[in-house]
Structure formats: structure tokens, C-alpha cells
């Protein structure tokens, strides 16, 4: 059975480019659930985690609504301190914090990074000036994050 695989490493949060993927034929017993059979099914899609060379791409590799499981949501975190970006990785668990009248507080605990901005565009966030990190969290926390983005400083604590 022929499946789509990575011809080179694909960084989490970036969009799949044609040069990064190809097809290989493997025994059906080795084909993972959620596989893709055609390259055009994945080109332009955002990758949710780092994909190593040779890996068979599956639906779990792509950033889709399926990453927002029932009771969870995807939300953008506009970082007030962009120096943290180099420490962050897709799939990493973090806490989202914000400053308030009573001092700093956690507004989303145990959030999972689903997308990061990349230099030169072409990533999940195509605006080169964007410092938006996409996380998945429970719906109430996502609402707090979205509200806080427009009201004050917000940051991420690496766990």
C-alpha cells in the first residue's frame, strides 16, 4: 500500500511543502491509522508536531479541528515577551499566565502548544511580525486567554 511520508524533517507549526513529502509503498500491516495515500492531501496543511525524515504522515500529524477534542479549544496566545519563542516546541505542555489587578495568575493550566510562528512566513502564522502561539486548552481557559490577549500582558510558563 502506498502512503505519504516525509522526505525531509518538517518542523511542527509549519505548512507542508511539496518538496518535503513523497510516497512510499509498504506492507499493509505497517500502515498506521489515519494515513494519507496522496501527496496533495497534505500539501499546505499545518503540521502539529515535528515530523522526522521517513515518517509516514497521518492525520495526527496535522493541525486540524481534531486537535480540539470535545471540551477543548484552540486559542492564540499573543506573547508579550518574544524571547521565549526559542524555548517552545509544538506538543509541549505549558501554563498561560497574565498580569491582573491582583498580580500575575495562571489563566490556562496544562495547555499544549499546537503551533508556533516561524521566521520567513509560511508557517502556521504567515505574518512575519506575529508572535502568536497556538495552544489547545479547555474552553473556559481558552476564553480567558482570548480576553486577556486584548487587555494586558500575557506569557507562557514552560513546565
Automatic annotation (TrEMBL):
Protein name as catalogued: SAF domain-containing protein
A Pfam family recorded for this sequence: SAF
InterPro entries: SAF (IPR013974)
Lineage, opening ranks: Bacteria, Bacillati, Actinomycetota, Actinomycetes, Propionibacteriales
Species of provenance: Cutibacterium granulosum DSM 20700
Residue ranges constituting the SAF domain according to the UniProt record: 3-62
Amino acid at each position: 500500500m502506498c502512503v505519504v511520508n516525509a522526505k525531509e524533517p518538517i518542523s511542527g507549526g509549519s505548512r507542508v511543502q511539496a518538496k518535503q513529502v513523497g510516497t512510499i509503498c509498504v506492507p499493509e500491516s505497517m500502515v498506521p491509522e489515519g494515513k494519507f495515500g496522496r501527496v496533495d492531501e497534505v500539501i499546505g496543511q499545518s503540521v502539529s508536531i515535528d515530523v522526522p525524515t521517513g515518517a509516514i504522515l497521518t492525520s495526527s500529524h496535522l493541525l486540524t479541528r481534531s486537535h480540539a477534542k470535545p471540551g477543548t479549544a484552540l486559542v492564540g496566545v499573543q506573547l508579550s515577551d518574544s524571547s521565549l519563542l526559542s524555548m517552545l516546541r509544538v506538543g509541549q505542555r505549558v501554563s498561560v499566565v497574565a498580569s491582573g489587578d491582583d498580580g500575575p495568575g495562571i489563566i490556562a493550566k496544562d495547555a499544549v502548544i499546537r503551533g508556533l510562528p516561524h521566521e520567513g512566513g509560511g508557517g502556521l502564522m504567515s505574518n512575519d511580525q506575529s508572535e502568536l502561539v497556538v495552544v489547545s486548552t479547555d474552553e473556559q481557559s481558552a476564553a480567558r486567554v482570548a480576553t486577556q490577549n486584548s487587555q494586558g500582558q500575557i506569557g507562557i510558563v514552560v513546565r
